Amino acid sequence: QVRAGRVTVLLLADGTDTGKTLTLNEAGNWTGSFDNLPKYKDGNAIAYTVKEDDVANYTGAVTGDATSGFTITNTNTE
Q1: Confidence band (pLDDT; 50, 70, 90) for 1?
Q2: Cα 53 to Cα 4: distance, rounded to the nearest angstrom
Q3: Which residues of 26-51 are buried (b: 16+ CB within 10 A; e: fewer)?
Q4: What is the largest CA-CA distance in the chain?
C-alpha cells in the first residue's frame, strides 16, 4: 500500500477559503486542529468546514463537523 507523504487541509468559513491550512503526515498521526477561531462574523455564527487538497491517485471524503471534528478518508483509486 502506497501512502501520500503528507496532505494539506484547507479551512473554509461559510464556504470561503480562510487561507489557513494544516499539513498532516504520518509522524503527526495524521491529525491536527485549527485553534482560536472566531465563532461569529457580523453577529452570525460562522459555519466552518474543511477541504483537502487533491492527492494524486486518491479520492477524499470528508465527514463530521466543526463541533465533533472532521474525518477525511482517502481511498486509493489505482
Answers
A1: very low
A2: 12
A3: eeeeeeeeeeeeeeeeeeeebebebb
A4: 48
